[in-house]
Amino acid sequence: MLQSTSRGIQISGAFIIISMSSVMIYWNSYQTKSADITIVNLTRQTTEISIKTCLKNPPSLGHFVFHHFNGTLEDLNNKYQKYKPELGGKFKPLECQEREKLAIIIPYRDRQRHLMDFLSHMPPMLLRQRVEFTIFVIEQDPQEKFNRALMMNVGYLEALKQDNYSCFIFHDVDMYPINDNNIYKCSTSPRHLAVAVEKWKFRLPFRGYYGGVVAYPKAVIEKTNGFSNFYFGWGGEDDDLGARLAVVGLKFVRPAAVYGRYATPVHGKDKGNPVSKDRFRLLGNAKSRIWYDGLNSVVYNVSKIEKKKIYTHIHITVDRQKLEENVKLKNIELEMQHLKSSPINKQ
């Protein structure tokens, strides 16, 4: 029994204490003695006030259709205004509290129509999935050949300067999911999401294909040192990614093909992105480069950051010569550290 005495107070009905986290209601009977009041026989009921956590698998998800978008960016801004995104395109579920912060990284150059389709198609799906997310568009200047993997490194590093994201999805701008049961979240293993792609008749082109859309938890990206910086031009970087995972003892997991379905509109070859003539040579030593060719050696310059209403657009320039020199220096640095720490040099 809890007793409390207060001088000069009259109480009837309920004694209520309110804290920041809960409301506690004490129903009481009491006796009075002159100016003193003694509260006796308290029973307690507590009602917690909290925001519920988002469900791992939200209801009412399923197949939906991809449509080309013919409007303007301002049309999209108006469309998503009701969801109250923060400047830079940070969306949060209005109904619940999400467990993780998701950064979607898009390597980009000269794909305005595809980007508009992406911005029209993706946020509604992610909002149905109750995901907290920000879309980052990483655009490389046209002076150098397109380097998709390097831009994924840049996207990772620049996104972390904005917020403490725990999950990263690296996404081609021309792939559009058509089943929102393909949940855009991370697990402890990297996830390959683009399992059944329209341009390959909704099948994997080959068993070891990891391209298009992959989801990485932050810890795994750090473990693999991100991605290689050397793949200028088309091809090779996805296979290099598979080699890195093998080095650290990890494998991709995939959703069922019925869920991992993507529409892929037909388009011509990209200017400034010819097939890489070096890709097979690079793949030959991919496993040995993991420790010095990646996040710890990437070199780039951010020329502009545009925080738009529904996404963040980061413009970068790349000096290939400086990049290659820095990667070589990182290799030498690691070799020197290894020599210093060897048992022979410690004697």
CATH class assignment of the largest domain:
Alpha Beta
Given helix and strand content, the structural type is alpha/beta
What CATH calls the topology of the largest domain is Spore Coat Polysaccharide Biosynthesis Protein SpsA, Chain A
Termini separation comes to 72 Å
Query: Which regions are unreliable across 5 or more consecutive residues at pLDDT < 50?
Result: 1-49
CATH superfamily of the largest domain: Spore Coat Polysaccharide Biosynthesis Protein SpsA, Chain A
Number of domains: 2
β-strand number: 15
Strand content: 15-25%
Provide a count of the helices: 9
Brief account:
The chain is α/β, with parallel strands linked by helices. The chain is built from 9 helices and 15 strands. The protein is globular, with a radius of gyration of 27 Å.
Description:
There is one protein chain. The chain is 27% helix and 24% strand. By secondary structure, it is of the alpha/beta class. The strands form three sheets. Strands 5, 6, 7, 8, 10, 12, 14 and 15 form an eight-stranded mixed sheet that branches. The N terminus is likely disordered.
Topology of helices and strands:
Blueprint: E1 4-7, E2 14-18, E3 22-33, E4 36-48, H1 73-79, E5 90-91, E6 101-108, H2 112-128, E7 132-140, H3 148-162, E8 167-171, E9 176-177, E10 191-192, E11 196-197, E12 213-217, H4 218-223, H5 237-247, E13 261-263, H6 279-284, H7 286-289, E14 301-307, E15 312-317, H8 320-341, H9 343-346
Parallel strand pairs: 6-7, 6-8, 7-15, 11-13
Antiparallel strand pairs: 1-4, 2-3, 3-4, 5-7, 8-12, 9-13, 10-12, 14-15
Keywords for this entry:
globular, 15 strands, Spore Coat Polysaccharide Biosynthesis Protein SpsA, Chain A, alpha/beta, 8-stranded mixed sheet, 347 residues, 9 helices, disordered N terminus, 4-stranded antiparallel sheet
